[in-house]
């Protein structure tokens, strides 16, 4: 069984795969890269992506999907700083806290986490003020690394990334209404894949997702 | 900014970064190549290995090492910052990444050229009373010029195509660090972004073909001069 999955799911999926009765090999990458590989005929049984846009694109490409895509987990967005950062009194203090530094986010168009971050900043009325003070990265973990290495004072990452990194502190939680739903849709591409897809929405998998900072979707 | 304007901006920046990287790296690479080809000293293999390391490491790792060494919070980065050289999230950081990534290719080509020079020619010049600097300038340099040119072209090409180390070290800031490869990558990550990516790939190809044609013409002129000398 081969599972192609968005890189941000690595920790949780590795644990779920270990608990799964049967051999599962996991291949991680960016959602766009994975979607293109699957459309080009990559031998995957299950695909899990970090946003619905790419899953819609896969369906549009006429990819043979056994069972309709369904969300297996959800995530939230957080503003982070170094672990010794002062708490933020209000979100509007963000530009002042940046001072001359930059705000690390995933690329606004190319990385799902960056797109959600842009939506949040737009909803908060801060986008115009910070859009020329961004450090946009090729994946959300690189934005996290900028904050942990002290290259930037602040960053916006998934709650699950902040859970995985003890060197950072969560300064603000994005209201879920400020950005599109952060869902991880999964689809089975072969009959074998169906059983693993169901395992992803089991209560046991839900516990693992939750422990890694995601929100579980249990069916 | 429209996507067209962004593509031209990325092209301009890529050429700017690649030119700077080549100009700065050629003398340094020539010096290192000279040492590796002509000198024997303790730690020579280590120096050679160090120079070649970026060829072996995944570019993302090289970028991360640069971030740890030259980032805003790193000692080297701070020291450079205090004398007015800002690398973090600045085009000069992209130049540094391009130099490091292209360096092994440049050194390799130049070292082979230096090793191929027959020392007897230099000795002959010396017996005729030529000073060392004149021997280098009038005997050695013309002989290794094709190697230097080949190294420079390799370095320029690597700088034009470098992606992983650059985006990891200095991110993807339009006009500052968003080079052509970064822009192409970003376009490919958007559903339906293929056309924009293809347009930029054509730009990159035109530059690459142009650079090869220019270097071939230069190489011919150098060869003609050596033959005539």
TrEMBL record, chain B:
Assigned keywords, A-Z: Cell inner membrane, Cell membrane, Membrane, Molybdenum, Transmembrane, Transmembrane helix, Transport
GO cellular component: plasma membrane
TM spans (from-to): 15-37, 49-71, 83-103, 139-157, 197-219
Subcellular location: Cell inner membrane; Cell membrane
Glycosyltransferase found in the keyword field: no
Domain ABC transmembrane type-1 residue range list: 11-219
CDD domains in the record: TM_PBP2 (cd06261)
GO molecular function: molybdate ion transmembrane transporter activity
Cited InterPro entries: MetI-like (IPR000515), MetI-like_sf (IPR035906), ModB_ABC (IPR011867)
Membrane topology note: Multi-pass membrane protein
Function: Part of the binding-protein-dependent transport system for molybdenum; probably responsible for the translocation of the substrate across the membrane.
Family statement: Belongs to the binding-protein-dependent transport system permease family. CysTW subfamily.
Protein name: Molybdenum transport system permease
Species of origin: Sulfitobacter sediminilitoris
Gene that this sequence comes from: modB
């Amino acid at each position: 069984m081969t599972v192609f999955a968005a890189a941000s799911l690595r920790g949780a999926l590795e644990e779920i795969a270990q608990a799964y009765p049967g051999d599962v090999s996991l291949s991680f990458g960016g959602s766009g890269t994975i979607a293109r590989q699957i459309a080009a005929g990559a031998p995957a049984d299950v695909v899990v992506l970090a946003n619905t846009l790419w899953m819609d694109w896969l369906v549009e490409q006429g990819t043979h999907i056994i069972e309709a895509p369904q969300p297996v987990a959800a995530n939230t967005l957080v503003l982070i700083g170094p672990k010794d950062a002062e708490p933020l009194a209000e979100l509007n203090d963000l530009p002042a806290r940046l001072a001359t530094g930059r705000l690390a986010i995933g690329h606004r168009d190319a990385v799902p986490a960056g797109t959600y971050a842009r939506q949040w900043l737009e909803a908060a009325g801060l986008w115009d003020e910070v859009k020329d003070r961004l450090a946009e990265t090729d994946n959300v973990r690189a934005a996290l690394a900028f904050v942990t290495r002290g290259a930037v004072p602040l960053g916006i990452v998934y709650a699950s990334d902040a859970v995985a990194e003890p060197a950072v502190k969560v300064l603000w939680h994005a209201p879920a209404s400020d950005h599109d739903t952060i869902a991880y849709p999964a689809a089975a591409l072969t009959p074998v894949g169906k059983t693993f897809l169901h395992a992803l929405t089991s209560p046991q998998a839900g516990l693992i997702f939750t422990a890694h900072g995601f929100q579980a979707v249990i069916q | 900014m429209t996507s067209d304007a962004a593509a031209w901006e990325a092209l301009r920046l890529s050429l700017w970064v690649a030119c700077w990287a080549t100009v700065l790296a050629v003398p340094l690479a020539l010096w290192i190549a000279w040492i590796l080809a002509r000198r024997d000293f303790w730690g020579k293999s280590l120096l050679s290995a160090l120079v070649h390391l970026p060829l072996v490491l995944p570019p993302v790792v090289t970028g991360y090492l640069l971030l740890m060494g030259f980032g805003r919070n790193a000692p080297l980065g701070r020291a450079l910052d205090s004398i007015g050289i800002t690398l973090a999230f600045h085009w000069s950081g992209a130049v540094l990444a391009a130099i490091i990534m292209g360096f092994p290719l440049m050194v390799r080509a130049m070292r082979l050229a230096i090793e191929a020079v027959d020392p007897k020619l230099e000795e002959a010049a010396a017996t005729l009373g030529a000073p060392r600097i004149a021997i280098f300038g009038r005997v050695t340099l013309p002989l290794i010029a094709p190697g230097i040119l080949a190294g420079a072209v390799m370095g320029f090409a690597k700088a034009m195509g470098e992606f992983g180390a650059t985006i990891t070290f200095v991110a993807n800031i339009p006009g500052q660090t968003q080079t052509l490869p970064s822009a192409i990558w970003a376009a490919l990550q958007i559903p339906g972004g293929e056309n924009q990516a293809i347009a930029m790939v054509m730009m990159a190809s035109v530059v690459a073909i142009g650079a090869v044609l220019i270097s071939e013409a230069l190489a011919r002129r150098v060869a003609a001069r050596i033959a005539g000398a």
